[in-house]
Inverse folding.
């Protein structure tokens, strides 16, 4: 489950993610900055935590 701009606000507000079914992926801000890191409680999830990072953003407004 990618926690992009559209979804992370719901997750931060308390959206529950099933422990073993989904792995939350914290994403960057499309400019290379991670928006936030997992808390110690999130890192202890049995389903894990991941990071989605754009190595190359193709498209506006940064690479037209």
């Amino acid at each position: 489950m990618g926690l992009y701009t559209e979804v992370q606000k719901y997750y931060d507000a308390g959206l529950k993610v099933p422990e073993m079914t989904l792995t939350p992926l914290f994403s960057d801000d499309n400019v290379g900055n991670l928006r936030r890191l997992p808390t110690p409680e999130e890192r202890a999830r049995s389903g894990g935590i991941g990071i989605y990072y754009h190595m190359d953003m193709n498209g506006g407004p940064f690479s037209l």
User: Anything to note?
Assistant: The longest helix spans residues 5-12. The longest strand covers residues 25-27. DSSP finds two helices and three strands in the chain.
